[in-house]
Design a protein that fits this description.
By secondary structure, the protein is mostly helical. 63% of the residues lie in helices and 0% in strands. Helix 2 packs antiparallel against helix 3, helix 3 packs across helix 4 and helix 6 crosses helix 7.
Length: 215
Amino acid sequence: MDIPILDFDHLSVVLKTCAAVFDNNERFMLSDTVISQAISRFKDNSAIEEVLPKVILINSFYSTQIYSTERIADHIISADIDSRLHDGDPSVVGDIRRRHGIKTKKTDKEIDFYSFATKYAALHEPQRYAIFDGLVMRLLTALNAQLGFCPRFAQPDLRDYSRYLSVVDSLADSTGLSSLRYKHLDQGLWIYAKFLYSPVNLSENERHVIRDCHR
């Protein structure tokens, strides 16, 4: 589906509506609540009994396809991320996504767990980290081509996390949605990307609510 013609005010309404759709979806909110409770209970990332339950939950609910959760948990512990995580240091994402030694079976190449790394950081510190998602990457690229809220970029550019954050920040500033940064803005972008590119994952009522924003 092509993106309907938008201006920033219109886009702001659409994203706030999509964030509300997320909040009203029991399945999405259940996963968010369960993970939030686990993180509240296990706030630190220095012991396997703290980190492994969180890795398993995030991997399960978000389908991040990590087949060796214990190895990733050990990797997170060895990265010593806690102080940087609380400061919103983007290097945390780089340290989690790489140098874990988990490789693909076909190519023997280390897997880049970029999306998982952003989710792990953002679910701990939702005001300091944005979640990367492939559909949202596609959406941000299309929105910027139409509205020009930051210098032009291609989708692969957003695999640099600092660049990704700067693009999301520029969009938040341009739409007046800085107060939603990052958690609710993430949710709004994700639902809107689902509506545009994978609507089968939304109910008919949810699609109807979002369609109404474009009238």
